[in-house]
Amino acid sequence: MLDAAMSLLDSAQRLLDDHDRAVTAIRDAFRPLQRELTGAELAAIPVSRLKEVTAGRLRLGALEQAGFTSVGEVYEAGRHALRQLPGVGGHTADQTVAAATRIAEAVGETVSVRIDIDRPEPRTTALVTALHRLVEAGPGLRRAHDSAERLTTELRALLPEAEPARGRLRMALAGRERRERALGAVGRIRQRLDEAADADVPLLLAQISVDLLREPASDVECWVDFELRSAEYYSVLAETTGSAPDVAASEGFMPSEIAGRVRAQELDDTRLRVSLRGYQSFGARFALSQRRVIIGDEMGLGKTVQAIAALAHLAACGGTHFMVVCPSSVLINWTREIRARSTLRAVPVHGPERREAFTEWRERGGVAVTTFDSLHTLPLAGDAERSAGDVGPLPGGVGPLPGEPRMLVVDEAHYVKNPDTRRSRALSGWTARAEHVLFMTGTPMENRVAEFRSLVQRLQPELAPAVEGIDAVAGSHAFRRAVAPAYLRRNQQDVLAELPALVQVDEWEELSAGDLAAYREAVASAHFMRMRRAAYARPETSAKLGRLRELVTEAAENELKVVVFSYFQDVLATVRKALGEGVFGPLSGSVPAARRQGIVDRFTAVPGHAVLLSQIQAGGIGLNLQAASVVILCEPQVKPTLEHQAVARAHRMGQVRPVQVHRLLAVDSVDQRLLDILADKNRLFDAYARRSALADATPDAIDVSDRDIARRIVEEEQVRVGVGVRVRTEG
């Protein structure tokens, strides 16, 4: 047995050594890139900033006279060179270099190394190749490494203690106390070996060691793999170089007592097929430790995989039945994600055969994936076992009955913001039956703060009084403290430092004579929706359409994929005709979800340039469009969230190129009036909803309905153009 323990210890130590070598290779490749970026930042910082670091005690006259203009120049010069300058003594030189070093260290912690796939060079190739080794080892690497660390620590302490037990003579020569310690160590070693065997640790160590010792892949293979799964490469880079995002930001600026409890929550990832990023692991732990919560991460941060991680943990702990409720447009995506990212069984419960699928799920378990509109047709389990009046959450320690979900995940939870709708009432019944409930939404508030309160009320009713008491005076920080037990939100810029740049350009166009004629007719008829699409009414002279063609042509020359969004199907039809053959779509609400995903898959699979058309309502939810790096918005939207969602479908984790967003706008038109009116609304949306902070402040700015906006714009445009009839806002 002791020989078996020694062999297991050797295997564990070899894995740790191989892992250390792989990590060292990554760090060695990373440092030159980090130093270059840090140097560029320091070169832009004026030398006067050194005085701020020393609270004004440093005299810079001699340095400036010697021609030093930036902190970077001082940092590169070093103490010896500075001491040679006239008027700079040893103490001043040391103080100056110390101040420059402090600034350099601070800059080094904030710079983000981005790997440019379009411009590979030897240093970034070395980094990608070094990362490839750990990425290829897969999610099992972390489990193997943790097991190896635990085994080496325990066995190194136990084996010397157990040494007398190797023979009778040794035991006889050992004193009584020594023999007792040896027998105790043998018992603990046997327990560790049994535990390792039950968890297949020896096999896991052997498999991961083979991965770590495999011959390095070719540069081309590594670059291709990076393009396919860049998020995993950046995740490994953050873990191995300490370039992870700010801890407080990655934890949603959670109060320390709650954050500590979440960190202490165990997360069993044995049933996951992917590695989680740090902030994703925190999100899954938050859902598990707090039990009934909302994760409102900004789009593109992987809310889906956080939910799957929580489901996988509960499954590893013995859970059998789980449920996901989502819009029909993303049901297929959820099913695919569950199967691809975990070993869990996904059961679509939708369509004409949903009752058969539901019965089969109850009998065999797995993750039932259903829609808001199908949920009310599914009978609640346990109605006979539980009293009809029991509608509250399950009490602590009370598990679900057979056929009830251990965890209920609700995607796009703002769909059920109104508690009086049929879909909301159906959801409430299932919410009461689940031990864990996770609401997911990237837009917890659009126009009314009450929507958010409605969601919190269903999850943790005891928080409702605290949320009710928050107003504009209290502001965002008070709100965050009040709802922290139930609400977690992180933004892309806080946790995805590697995300390529998002370049947003407003493309203002002068309406052509034909455009103006069509626009005046729409204004005269007081038809708001016709006004919004009048710029495309006469394609042969359309200024917006001309600019759209130019943008698509430029993207084609650079072999970039393009997504074109519009609110209107007839605008997309016009665009399709103008662009000719080879255009995918359009995606719309009338296209079945399976076909919609198929269109996106074919668009993604095309090498080089391609164009996908989509209604912004259909493409803004649930679909991953990171193959596209150019987004064209045919017109501004009444709801800012529609644009945020659509852009986030391309500018999200996994994107490896900068994303260009071109919004086509017409001067002196409904476009300009709409942007003016929405300016304050958008500002408040950013200040509150997108930063996890909501308030009842300035309802006049936030609570503007689509109809109110339409009426106001039509009336203003009728005055400006010189016509006037009743206002029409529909169609």
From TrEMBL:
Domain Helicase ATP-binding, residue spans: 284-462
Domain called Helicase C-terminal: residue spans: 547-710
Signal peptide feature range: none
Protein name from the UniProt record: Helicase SNF2
Protein source organism: Streptomyces scopuliridis RB72
Example GO molecular function: helicase activity
PROSITE patterns recorded: HELICASE_ATP_BIND_1 (PS51192), HELICASE_CTER (PS51194)
Keywords, comma-separated and alphabetical: ATP-binding, Helicase, Hydrolase, Nucleotide-binding
InterPro entries recorded: Helicase_ATP-bd, Helicase_C-like, P-loop_NTPase, SNF2-like_sf, SNF2/RAD54-like_C, SNF2_N
Domain of life: Bacteria
